[in-house]
Amino acid sequence: MDLSLLFAFAGLCALLALTPGPDTFLVLRFSTAGTRSGIAAALGSTVGSLCWALAVAAGLATLLERSAEAYQVVRIAGGLYLLWLGIRTLLRRGGGLPDIDAAGAGPSWAAARAGFFSNVLNPKVGLFFVAVVPQFLPGHHASIGATMLLGSIFALVGFVYFSLVAVLAGRALEWLRRPRVSKAIDRGTAGVITAFGITTIASAAR
């Protein structure tokens, strides 16, 4: 592949990563349990991106292009998950996530799992891989090698950015763990994710 094309794609990925979305707020939220949990959420999101790349390489883009109903189901499923995640966060009791030292690996596993499902069930991420990635492929045809290369670039850029968010949040851990701040993060995260879910479902139902 043309090197200039890869740099252009990486630049696009960076711009998308800098645009706040469900993954960003999840990483920030889990970072209140420690930097390790925040990075775990970032890692889960990264694995989700690679799954999307693999699915496109396996022919998902072609399948969805031929079946509007299948794409609608994917969008609705993703919207329902985001809606459930947002409501669950909003209704969660307590001032912040469990302390990382006391809870051990639990928060990290929960963070990785939430990051993964937030990404793999996010229709906007899927739309990027289905509609945008093929435009950067030679001849606009998906091959496993080229698709996975672009998917890896997307995943790497996202992981670096989200990890940076987790590290910076970790440095402000004492402040983030204050009940008022932690509750505000929870409510903000819940509001953003719920809004994403409702918007996704509404657009899919049109």
Automatic annotation (TrEMBL):
- Which top-level group of life is the source organism from? Bacteria
Q: How does it sit in the membrane?
A: Multi-pass membrane protein
Name recorded for this polypeptide: Threonine/homoserine/homoserine lactone efflux protein
The species is Mumia flava
What InterPro entries does the database record attribute to this sequence? LeuE-type (IPR001123)
Compartments, record wording: Cell membrane
Taxonomic lineage is:
Bacteria, Bacillati, Actinomycetota, Actinomycetes, Propionibacteriales
Annotated Gene Ontology cellular components are:
plasma membrane
Enumerate the UniProt keywords alphabetically: Cell membrane, Membrane, Transmembrane, Transmembrane helix
Transmembrane region(s)? 39-61, 73-91, 144-170
Q: What Gene Ontology terms describe what this protein does at the molecular function level?
A: amino acid transmembrane transporter activity
